[in-house]
Design a protein that fits this description.
This protein is mainly beta. The protein is built from 7 helices and 34 strands. The N terminus is likely disordered.
Length: about 550
Amino acid sequence: MNVKYLLFFLLMGGMISCQSSDEYSEETQEPEKEQEEESTCQAWQDFVSRSERNVLLDFSYAGYKRGEMAPPDIWTLGYKKYDITKYGAVPDDGKSDRAAFMRVLEEIGINHNPNARAIIYFPEGGFVLYDENDKVDGKSETMQIRAGNLVLKGAGRAKTSIVMKAPYQPLEGLDYAGPMIEFKHWSGFTPELSDIVGDAVKGSFSIEVASASGLSAGDWVCLKLEDNSPELIAQELKPYAVSAQMTQLRNKGVQVYDIHQVKSVRGNKVTFFEPLLYGVEKKWKWKLCRYNYYENIGIEDMSFYGNAPKEFIHDQWAINSAYKPINFHRIANSWVRRVDFYSVSEAVTFTECANVSAYDIRIGGNRGHCAVHTSGSSRVLIADVVDEGESPTMKDAGQWHAVGVSKHSLGTVIKNCVWGRDTNFESHATQPRATLIDGCSGGFIQFHQGGATDQLPNHLDDLTLWNFKATYVLPGEAVEWKWWNEERDWKFLPPTIVGFHGADVQFVASQVKIDQDHGKAVTPWSLYEAQLQRRLGYLPDISYLK
């Protein structure tokens, strides 16, 4: 880091760790395929041959534009550039630049502006976007941006710094704080468009609806299930049984929100670009809803600094949530790349988003609560995240919860991520499903996955660990690793495990779908890459595709 920026942050008392689809038609011809890696991995062979033994989902549709292209070079988009220093921001003076940022937002228009076509540029230097003087009537206010086609751009991760100088206060009546900046579409999954009147198996692309009126190719929709029928809950948890403590599941029922883009509408048959990640049975309360969103939101080439304290104490708001710089809420086809986070409570969260890519991210400084994670989102790709959060006793502890999922997320791919020894991938309960942990390494410690007792299980069907390397396991946990622990708040439906290696861990055989090639890595190294190449016939030129 440049010396003048180091002095700037030290002046403020900051805790610093210096480190440095296109849509295609059914008639499009398939391109000539690149040669695939030879593999003796049985799970991969079963997927390729479509064997009845296959237990793998096709995760290749995750990420920006379904993984088919990189997010754009923003200078080619023709967007207007807004240099924040032209609106009163002064880099490196230690004073708040929030008013300047708000002036930029007011000029762009952030009150439901789907096509802002704007680049907010932060040149070299440090910019404070929140300090104690920025409270309104003694309260912290999230800067909400209701706009699409808008990019926050820095001069480089080692050159531009965005600073939270003071902690955000808890939201009224709650024990956690909101984010500093939030890109958000206010509408939910509304209106309801139709009942779903036909069955559709997991992995298929089409559904039958009572009425397709008002639906067109290119629309975004959500397959929504909210049903607390005891029979459905029992089916969902098989081979386990619901407990009295699982009140969220018992009262609100099975909740699935599978977000899709419509490829075609023919009569009452609706076909999507992406496969279903959850099988549809018409006997349950399935609805097709409109998905309301903004798209083409980008954050790149900058670093965010918080002031999380040196000692992390779980369940204290000032540590768990006081320094959350960014949240995306109902955002599609967007990205975060080449961004660092230091001493933050959470790096970035994707809430009810679809097809977002977050990659080339570093997390350092004092450890906080969460790294990068999805919350109720569909097909988000999180790749090349290095989590090096520090605790007083461990330099490579990692955030308390490493990269992961929460709520009713579906199809999240966590690829080639590395985290510290004193953590684990996050699976924060409230019905996440279909998560791929792909070629990742880090601590493999129970009870770092989170989720209140009433919101269990931690993860439902189709958790897949592919070539996971465990760098540390607590003594005693490795001898008989239980995915469903009747005595403790730790409950996962049977996962699919292939190529688990590193620390010697023994899984209870009855609690996994498969545990193949245990103790060694397999080919292909990345399940996501192999599936993407097999689908497209090539690998797009994207940095996280090695």
